Every structure is written in C-alpha cells, then in structure tokens.
Description:
Mean pLDDT: 95
Distance between the termini: 44 Å
Strand order of the largest sheet: 5-4-3-6-7-8-9
Bound molecules: S-adenosyl-L-homocysteine
Helix content: 25-40%
Order of helices and strands: HHEEHEHEHEEHEEE
Number of strands: 9
CATH architecture of the domain at 57-206: 3-Layer(aba) Sandwich
CATH topology of the domain at 57-206: Rossmann fold
CATH class of the domain at 57-206: Alpha Beta
Radius of gyration: 17 Å
Number of helices: 6
Largest sheet: 7 strands, mixed
Amino acid sequence: xxxxxDYRIIGKRRQLVELLRSKGIGDEAVLEAIGRIPRHAxxxxxxxHIHAYEDVPFPIGCGQTISQxxxxxxxxxxxxxSKGQKVLEIGTGSGYQTAVLHxxxxxxxxxxxxxxxxxxxxxxLSGLGVKAQLYYGDGYKGLPAHAPFDRILVTCGxxxxxxxxxxxxxxxxxxxxxxxxxxxxxxxxxxxVKEGGTEIxxxxxxxxxxxxxxKAR
Length: 217
Ligand code: SAH
C-alpha cells in the first residue's frame, strides 16, 4: 500500500508533467516517461525528495548536477528516440536521463568520467531495474567498439562538436549536444543526411556543467 508520502510525491510528479507541457513539451511519450520515473530516487539526500519534482537542477556529488526536468524533456524530445534504437549518452551523472531513455525503449550505452558517480549510478540503476550498459571513461571518444549509434545525447556543455561522436552516428543518425565555452551553450542537433554529410540546427540557449577534457582519476 502506498503511504501518504508516496501520494504527495505522485501528485507533485503529475504537476511537473503539466508544468513541462505548459512550457512547450508536446511529446506524449516523453511526458509519460517523466510522469512515471521517480526523480526523487536519483537524489542522495532524502531531505530533498519532496523537492525532486520542482523544475530545477540539484547537486549529485563530484561538483555535478542532475539536469533540470525541462532540459531533460527538451533534449529527449529533440533526440526523437524510437523503441529499440541504439542510444549513446555522454554524462551518466545521476542516471535520471538514462532512465528516461530506458522508458522510451532505447538500448542504452552511457559514459561517465567521474568514477564515484559511475559506481553509485550503476548500483542505483540496477536497483531500479533500468537496463543500460554503463562505462567509466571519456565521452569525447565515444564508444567506437559499439558504434554506430542511432542517437547520441550529450548531457554536459561541450566546447565544440566532438568529431569522434559525429563519426559514430549511423546513417540517418542524430546527436543532441549543448555547445559553447562560456556559461551558456547553444542546443545543437546534428543530423547525418544523405551522402554522409551533416546538418546542424540551433535550438536555443541552455546552461550545463562543462564537458571535461582530462579524465578523472
Ligand atoms: N544525464 C545526467 C546529467 C549529469 S550532468 C543526469 O540526468 O543526472 C553531466 C555529467 O557529465 C556529469 O556527471 C559529468 O561528470 C559528466 N561528464 C563531464 N565531462 C564528461 C566526459 N568528458 N565524458 C563523460 N562524462 C562527462
């Protein structure tokens, strides 16, 4: 039986979905995934659980943050994932975005450069029944051994579009990557078009933690 606390959390999650809808997220599959995933389970500090459905980022350790739900919804919508597609995520972080991709039926590979986060999130995701292949490593390199990917999602701000990641996109593939060296980034969508060329669209200004070049020890 669900406790009173659970009902409060379920209510807050419904309100978050409505908030995202009012902010322009229209992809029902994405909204449904966010309406189902217990974001509070991705926050270590249980005092924060009741705030987990506010549209804000939170610290997750190692100086990193779980992205704001609107950003997760926006990136996921832009990525346009269908069931069974192979998706590479750069920046596993708390694993929340990984869980959203899993709910959409993707076959997920995800890389994290901070070892403590990688280890904690591996345990968390398996406890929640979220299937994903998690790697500790440098996202700039991608995962050439598992390429090509139908979709690549970068969840940290990259100073440029990493070439290795473009090369790991399948024909017709797509990558969503926030690019910019200052405090803010532009949300870019890179699509592989006919004859292997790429097309780049700009989807506005966002703010991310930086994609780091030197690998954590
Ligand atoms: N998707 C995450 C977002 C976490 S913030 C979530 O839903 O919680 C971005 C993450 O990218 C951080 O955990 C950070 O450590 C990681 N990151 C930064 N640079 C990286 C790199 N070069 N390779 C892989 N991960 C990186």
